[in-house]
Amino acid sequence: MKVVILAGGFGTRISEESQFKPKPMVELGGMPIIWHIMKIYSAYGFNEFIICAGYKQHVIKEYFADYFLHTSDITFDFTGGKSEMTVHRNVSEPWKVTVVDTGLGTMTGGRIKRIRDHLGGEPFLLTYGDGVADLDIAALVRFHRSHGKLVTISAYNMGQRFGVLDVGADGSIREFREKIQGDGNLINIGFMACQSEFIDYIAGDDTVLEKAPLETAAARGQLMAFKHTGFWKCMDTVREKEELEKLWAEGRAPWKVWDC
Known about the structure:
Elements: E1 2-7, H1 15-18, E2 27-28, E3 31-32, H2 33-43, E4 48-53, H3 57-65, H4 67-71, E5 73-77, E6 84-89, E7 96-101, H5 108-114, E8 124-128, E9 131-133, H6 137-147, E10 151-157, E11 164-167, E12 173-177, E13 186-188, E14 192-194, H7 212-219, E15 223-228, E16 232-234, H8 238-249
């Protein structure tokens, strides 16, 4: 399955960083958070990525174009009129990365619709470019394949900030909606698995994924919840970035599920 990463928003809540780069390129421990997300998926054998870019999309493209320069030890030799480059420590990933400019003002649903041709009609994984977790991706995929519905989203218990899920005892989602005062605290944290037919629920560029598409899927009995009880955190503000940085610096980053 290919992994689709939504990475095109403006990141206005973390504008101290996002005025210079798209939020998925904001660094944790010297590496962009999108790298951390990709490493999570790669640890479970999912190595083909489609990045839905938009705001400052050239920064993402340039990062992957120069990936060796960012991750390897290199000698540049200009002596005697030479211009040679020697890579001493080639740190490469088994990744195939497609970066698609899905538009500056396109909404989350519209970005997915724009990359439909890259999916080849196959099921796909989907996540946001600003959240990390120690979620078991393999278990998520197994659960998604077991129930035969169009969409599985990962659900997490947390204080209210995001879309609210009404989940039945069998994991079926009876309702998906925006939060209101007095709601419980089971939220959508992304890390989704989708059948390609779900894209038919997306009207166009102005469609917000978290509204009509997921609400419709829930109403038609096509939305399921994979409950995650481990670690998850969204880097939405500078304070949250600092909290994640602290965990990484102290060697206590729960989302580091890879060996190297």
